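G., the chain you wanted modeled:
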Amino acid sequence: MTLKSWTTRDILITAVIGIVMGILSTIVDYAYTAGGAALGPIFTRTLIGVVMFTALFVPYVVRRPGAALIGMIIAGLVQVPFSPGGIGSLVLSAIYGLFVELAFLITRYKRYSLTMLIVTACSVGVLGMLLGYVPNNLHRLSIGTQVGLFAIVLGSCALGAWLVVILANSLRNSGILGNVMPEVSS
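Predicted structure as tokens:
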């Protein structure tokens, strides 16, 4: 990862988006904690799309190597003092940022289509779920529930990726992002 191609504008946009995403993620963490306690793992898996939205938004807008990881670390730092997850929020944010970063690295940071975002979001979402499978006792659920959880993760992640494209393109078209983000075809 090299920051040589980064401009001051890229750094500032990454920082601002990271802060905003950190605030959004903190709100979602409270919903995740309360909803998970009240409604169980099915509810919590519906929120993984928000994590994918957060992880994909910065690289989609900034389009620089390291954008996903840096954006997620900033978001995680914002969460630490306010989120019920505390320092764990930073660790998870960095892990998701790294996973998303690897997906863009595979394409040499040249593919930013909706298809690329959906595949990345779904892959990272499923990987994240698998990493917590045994610690969260998901393997003890019925097979039907487990299949349903994977379906929910895939749908939520695809929705999160689609919303990244919709929101970022809307911000670009409104002029808020200036000329930072080029148009991308699917």
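The CA atoms of residues 117 and 161 lie 6 Å apart.

Shout if anything looks off.
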